[in-house]
Write a structure and sequence with these properties.
This protein has 181 residues and is an all-alpha fold. The longest helix is centred in the middle third of the chain and has 34 residues. The radius of gyration is 18 Å and the shape is globular. 28% of the residues are buried.
Length: 181
């Protein structure tokens, strides 16, 4: 399916699960951005807050929401570290040309850091809204980006995150060509 034929069975399963998980996360992010761009983000915010309210009312629900927020925030930090360290390069057969190599690396660094910042904000908002016992404020990625926009210099930070996410998308397209399989 993902052509990890050269790997041992255990690593192959891990790589396939990782790829499937990433596909789900990126599909959710893409749908969130599409809803926000089309003006339907209020519906996604309402759906997220309704979902959050139902979880927090369950026994141990607050702990579960904090754990979910922590996992999302940690995943964001992992993306930032992968970007800053350039660890993503080990999965690529970088082009021999110095310019092409620099472009691919630059897209990866900026993209990974931006993706990490976006995920970290979402996780942080989950935790804050749960600790404040106001699950109606838990709004998902679109709410996290709106909250970022409302901060001092928020428009500039949001523009930077958006540009970084575009770089990450471009990096993923380039990765399709240069990925080690």
């Amino acid at each position: 399916m993902f052509d990890y034929g050269q790997l041992e069975a255990r690593k192959k399963v891990g790589k396939k699960l990782s790829a499937a998980g990433k596909a789900v996360v990126f599909a959710v992010i893409a749908l969130t951005f599409a809803a926000s761009a089309s003006g339907n983000s209020r519906n996604s915010g309402k759906t997220t807050s309704d979902f959050t309210v139902s979880i927090i009312k369950a026994p141990g629900g607050a702990v579960l929401l904090i754990a979910i927020g922590a996992v999302i925030a940690i995943a964001g930090l992992v993306f930032v570290v992968l970007g800053v360290k350039g660890s993503f390069k080990k999965d690529l057969q970088l082009p021999p040309s110095g310019t092409a190599r620099s472009i691919v690396t630059g897209l990866g660094v900026v993209g990974y850091v931006a993706e990490g910042v976006a995920l970290f904000l979402v996780g942080l908002l989950f935790i804050i809204s749960t600790v404040n016992a106001s699950p109606r404020e838990s709004t998902g990625l679109d709410g996290g980006l709106k909250a970022l926009r409302e901060q001092p210099y928020g428009v500039y930070m949001l523009t930077a995150v958006g540009a970084g996410l575009i770089c990450y998308g471009l990096y993923l397209m380039v990765k399709a060509k240069f990925a080690r399989m």
